[in-house]
Amino acid sequence: MPANAFNGFSDYGIGIGLRIPHYRHILEKKPVVDWFEIISENFMVDGGRPLEVLDRVLEQYRVVQHGVSMYFGSADPPDREHLKRLRTLVRRTKTPWLSDHLCWGSVDGRFTHDLLPMPYTFAAAKHTAEKIRQVRDFTETPVCVENVSSYAEFHASEMTEWEFLSEVVEAADCGILLDVNNIYVSSKNHNFDPYEYLNNIPAHRVGQIHIAGHSKFKKYILDTHDHPVLDPVWKLYAHATRLAGVTATLLEWDDRIPSFEEVHGEALKANRFIHALEAVATP
Amino acid sequence: MAGALFRPLTSGNRMQPGTDASFIKPNDRLTSFERLEIYNRQYWFRILGCFYEDYPGLRAVLGDSKFERLARAYLAKYPSASFTLRNLGGRLEKFLAEEPQWAAPRQALALDMARFEWAQIVAFDGEARPVVEIDSLLGSDPAKLRLALQPYLSFLALDHPVDDCVLALKKAALRGEASNAVEASPKSGTRRAMPLPKREKIYVAVHRHDNGLYYKRLEPEAYHILTALRGGAFLEDACAEALASAPAGDWAEVVRKWFENWRQLGWFCVQ
């Protein structure tokens, strides 16, 4: 570990998201960062500043692509033009793996730009797995699917979320981008035990882990990515790392973004759990 | 679920009463309706927020309330049809032409501003093709020569000097952001005052250089040459038609300088 077929047998450690407020700092100061995660869609453009910045980052750093619009769970088939753009970017970044979400978000050519929860049915799992396979085959890159945070459940569901995730990744033979913050958020919103979730997914398929902060409201928790990681999420992270092994880890901080040092420092807190695990593993 | 998501919010930013949420499970804290409403509101807040960011000039022209009404009407009629929010405003010009009442009484100014702000989005990350080498054109017959222009370029004939307005708005924004003063209200709720421009015909190219965004005023004849070239006209025809009604003068030298400038800016590209 952490290398496995689902993250391209890579050895990535702790990374952070590449975000616009940090561009200047990164390009001028060239801080030591193991890797950056980019939002693929921000760079699936034809030219201009975004690609210039990306190329400069690629000169210095390892980059992994994370998507927000493939919508594996949407009924529409993958859009070929979208796939071509994605593949072009994959060739540019040489990302060892690709990730996107276990959700839907478009219908009949209309896009919600949201990561919407799916009804957990066997039919949906089969359809979703087929789309994941298509994307992996077209891009010739391993795919990890990320569990989303959610605020609603469907009467139509036939299984739990972790059963659905397992069903999909086994059928697609793909990896999991395990977002422990999302599990925590959903566990509070839907009254389930997050440890039961972690204990019942195929841990050997975890190719990457996401950590992030969230916001508590009176009746639900919102996945806002605008805070440091909270203690219950760190505890879940520690448990996930015990199950899956030390795995490429990425801190998401997307709103009210503080300084580069603060974001990177927050991400590096993951080291204490990784070191603890390594100490136990060392004879 | 999609039908509920795309449904416009009420004036109080709530989900419309009567929206079917029966397919959603309630929990011990939220009803089915309340759970679905979270997504309905998220959808509208996200796309409206994006629209606010992309069209600060149009917002200044219309004012906050009218801009918000226009945004909601536009996005209800033309929801996003692209995987990227970058293209959200791609049909705004069409919408304003179809339903000018949303911008009344400033329809013409609003349309100019919308076209100008969309051109900036195109210039920011539009395709750049390899620049054509001038040597490759030597000896070409202008009567049979077509020159391609960079896809990221937009040439606009406008009835208001909206380029000046946007520059003034950006300067005001920079002054605001340089201050440490605490804002009394959220950014999305503040509107920077912008003096409204008087009618004045202008021709402008929206382009980029070294990946920076620029506006360049054009002479009418230069505009007509460039739009003719973009339309596929032969070089000789483009120049002849553009200058047919131009006042007398040494146009050969003027046009030569224009082309030299455009070449230096990298505007001519391979087909």
Number of helices of chain B: 10
What is the percentage of strand-forming residues of chain A?
Answer: 15-25%
Q: Provide the low-confidence segments of chain A as ranges.
A: none
- CATH topology call of chain A: TIM Barrel
Largest sheet entry of chain A: 8 strands, parallel, barrel
Average the pLDDT over all residues of chain A and give the rounded result: 95
CATH architecture descriptor text of the domain at 126-161 and 198-271 in chain B: Alpha-Beta Complex
Instruction: Based on Cα principal axes, name the global outline of chain B.
Output: elongated
The portion of residues assigned to helices of chain B is 40-55%
Distance between the termini of chain A: 17 Å
CATH superfamily of chain A: Divalent-metal-dependent TIM barrel enzymes
Q: Gyration radius of chain A, to the nearest Å?
A: 18 Å
Strand content of chain B is: 5-15%
CATH topology of the domain at 126-161 and 198-271 in chain B: Outer Surface Protein A, domain 3
Sum this structure up briefly.
Chain A is α/β, with parallel strands linked by helices.
Description:
The complex is a heterodimer of chains A (about 280) and B (about 270). Chain A has about 280 residues and is an alpha/beta fold. Chain A has one domain: Divalent-metal-dependent TIM barrel enzymes (TIM Barrel). Chain A has 11 helices and 12 strands. Chain A has helices spanning about 25-30, 40-45, 50-60, 80-95, 120-140, 160-170, 180-190, 195-200, 230-245, 260-270, 270-280, and strands spanning about 15, 35-40, 65, 100, 105, 110-115, 145, 175-180, 205-210, 215, 220, 250. In chain A, the strands form 3 sheets. Chain A has an 8-stranded parallel beta barrel with strand order 1-2-3-4-7-8-9-12, surrounded by 4 helices. The mean pLDDT of chain A is about 95. Chain B is mainly alpha-helical and about 270 residues long. Chain B has a domain at about 125-160 and about 200-270: Outer Surface Protein A, domain 3. Chain B has helices spanning about 1-5, 30-55, 55-60, 65-75, 90-100, 105-125, 160-180, 220-230, 235-245, 250-265, and strands at about 150, 155-160, 200-210, 210-215, 270. In chain B, the strands form 2 sheets. In chain B, strands 2-3-4 form a 3-stranded antiparallel beta sheet, sandwiched between helices. In chain B, strands 1-5 form a two-stranded antiparallel sheet. Residues about 175-190 of chain B have low confidence and may be disordered. The interface of A and B includes residues 82 and 189 of A.
